[in-house]
Amino acid sequence: MENTLLLLYPAALGILLFAGSRVSFSGKTRPEYLAPDQTRQIQGAAGIGIILHHLTQQITAYGYSWKGPVTLFAFAGFLLTAIFFFCSGYGLITSLTVKPGYLRHFPARRLPAVLIPFWSVNLLLVLLNRFAFGMHSSTGEMMRRIIGLELVNSNGWFIVEIVILYLLFYVLFRLIPNRDAALACLCAAVILLMRSAFFRGHDTGENIHWFRGEWWYNSTPAFLFGALYARLRGKIDPWIARGDHYKALLGASALLCPVSFFLSIRVLLRYGYYETGIAAARYALITLIAQTSAVFFFCALVFLLNMRIAVGNRPLRYLGSIRMELFLVHNFFVSGVFGAARMSSFLRWLLVIGCSILCAAVLSLPIRHLTGAVTRCLDRLIGTGDAPGVRKAAPKPAHLHRNAGRIAAAAVLAGILAFLLLTFARYLLSGAEYRQEQEALRRAGIGDEVQWGRFETNLTRPGKERLTWIVIGKEKGKIRLLSRYGIAGSSYNRKHEAVTWENADLRAYLNSQRFTGMFSRYEAADVLTVNGDQITLMTVQDALALFPGDRERELAVTVAAEQAGTNVNRASKTNYWDMKGYRSSWWWLRQEKGEQSVCAPIVTADGSVLSDEKAVNKPGGAIRPVIWVKTGP
């Protein structure tokens, strides 16, 4: 019954979208078609759809648990996000065509419109995490999260990507006078950006990383569709209006849109983006092709309908005006405030949607004023606008404007190219690094230290550091490795309940992208899966058998692990540890197969092994991974 009631929400969204719409019965294109007011309202409706998408993912385990027809929303997020990308690509090229001096005003007027809401919501979330939820972070971490270098808001990825696309547009069209050539370069740059994200793999860890996860690229093609359509609209629209072309295209889109959507679901469930090893890229590419087709036909259907149906009503227009704030804040209510609340799904959805709209409405007022103030300030600073009350300086010669703009654009382009080159250099160098590591593994003996993979061990250094492992076992064609340091911290299980290793949260965490992502694509192909785990922990018997005494079991944790909240016991190490600056910690072991308890085994900071010392939900225990690696055929 409740699953049926949930269908009222998409039904209400449909009524909201088409209430008050104006239909062209004459067969002519509506004059409002793709006007800014129309695209804003369509994006406002898409924003509500994205909230429904995230809510549906929550109750259906990302679509794997069928809850009736509403389950389809669990798979529709990439299509709804594609609306935002399409409108952005279309809006950039159209504005360039119809607005004089658009590029000259672009940095001062377009970038603050997306960055100010992003930074404002980030600031609010950081302050809430610190003072309402007691999550302690260093000043540097807080600043990185506010700016967006670390994504405190899982939906912030869209702002990061759209800003990068805006900068690519600005730089290329500034540097290349021929607009068709500039557009071709923009398409190539976006495809390279998608390729970079594609090979960075899936992101399922605690943190949300830049360009990790399919959401960074599976809806991005819509940006190119919008930009290309804007450039070719003068030729496409007359052809569509000729004869019965519109009816044929509308009918084809109405058929192919659901067909391609259901095909994308089938492909996602069959192949997906989550595989590891050699098959991962092939499966992910098949899934991306299917989803790109669905994006194309969905955008085609939406905007073919808008040709003859102009949406328009006051609630929808208001949602369009707060669409950015709504997109950014809603996940706080989906996962944070109401995520674990015990209530019916129908009531939870109502509260999430209502609170998200209310919060976005409240935030939009100061954000709008702040954005306006920043825009006026930038206009005055770089002389691109007619700020009221400010006497204009004598205009500079046109060639100076052009040269200054091209120099600035060239500098930005150089930075983007450097970023892309460093990204691709990592993939080129990872092959050579892998071959060196494999050679070292084949030569290593028990007790030797080797390197394999990269992980964030020191936040003060750029990039990830190479991981050091101790060889603790060797068999024909494979080798067993134990991390030299505690590289992270966690509880054994989130809830205080009797668990086995097989259903412990720590096991799932170790085998998520947070840890499997520390291996390059070459390394990942050689990491063996044993008893269902790529990454695991030592057992009590391992810890007793492999180390001669307590002192050898003492564990130092990395700087990053300590800063992330991993337990550090300095007081018990008066001279031997503290004088050398080491950070010792107790660390988790895993239960034997089938064992169930509310306590999990550990090694203490002093190196002794205890089987029932720590409750499974005790936070801060160090994680010391164990892996098996293939070294030969």
Summarize the structure.
By secondary structure, the protein is an alpha+beta fold.
What does this molecule look like?
The chain is of the alpha+beta class and 633 residues long. It folds into 2 domains: 2-21 and 29-385, no CATH class; 444-630, no CATH class. It is built from 22 helices and 13 strands. It has helices at residues 2-5, 8-18, 36-60, 77-98, 102-109, 111-132, 139-147, 157-175, 179-200, 221-241, 245-270, 279-308, 314-321, 323-337, 345-382, 398-443, 505-510, 513-516, 521-526, 540-546, 550-553, 559-563; strands at 22-23, 309-310, 449-455, 465-475, 478-483, 488-490, 555-556, 584-585, 587-588, 599-603, 609-615, 621-623, 626-630. It has a 4-stranded antiparallel sheet, with helices on one face. A hairpin with a 2-residue loop joins β4 (465-475) and β5. α4 (77-98) packs across α10. The longest helix is centred in the middle third of the chain and has 46 residues, at 398-443. The protein is elongated. It starts with a helix and ends with a strand. Residues 385-396, 398-402 and 571-581 have low confidence and may be disordered.
Helical amount among residues, as a percent range?
Answer: 55-70%
β-sheet strand percentage: 5-15%
Largest sheet: 4 strands, antiparallel
Instruction: Strand order, main sheet: write it out.
Output: 3-4-5-13
Please tell me the overall pLDDT: 84
Integer-rounded radius of gyration:
27 Å
Number of helices: 22
State the separation between the terminal residues, measured CA to CA.
Answer: 56 Å
Q: Quick one: overall form?
A: elongated
Structural class: alpha+beta
pLDDT < 50 stretches: 385-396, 398-402, 571-581
